[in-house]
Design goal:
Strands 1-2 form a two-stranded parallel ribbon. The protein starts with 5 loop residues before the first helix and ends in a 5-residue tail after the last helix. The protein contains 3 helices and 2 strands, in the order αβαβα. By secondary structure, the protein is mainly alpha-helical.
Length: about 100
């Protein structure tokens, strides 16, 4: 934010980023959005022993058994995800490029 000044904002952003990273690495269970590049990096850190747990439990939300909690990526090929992608593209055609 401008009210803090550029240098303070940069420092706050870095501290916030490292605190979030540290807190996430302390967990034993990691539920990730595997479409996210950030979560891919986090999974690599966990798998390579950077987390506090000796054998962390890692789950992708795209692969959860309960469809209610599954996330869809552009490359997810399940019928539910193909339908969601079709509805989303149709909405964009009708309403233009909308940013949520």
């Amino acid at each position: 934010p401008k009210q803090y000044g550029e240098a303070k904002a940069k420092n706050d952003i870095m501290v916030s980023t490292f605190v979030a990273l540290k807190l996430q690495l302390l967990s034993k269970h990691f539920v990730a959005n595997c479409c996210s590049r950030f979560h891919e990096v986090m999974m690599d850190l966990f798998k390579n022993g950077c987390g506090a747990a000796p054998s962390p439990s890692i789950h992708c939300m795209q692969e959860l058994e309960d469809e209610q909690f599954q996330l869809c990526c552009d490359h997810t090929g399940t019928p539910k995800c193909r339908k969601q992608l079709f509805v989303y593209r149709k909405y964009l055609e009708e309403h233009g490029n909308v940013h949520f």
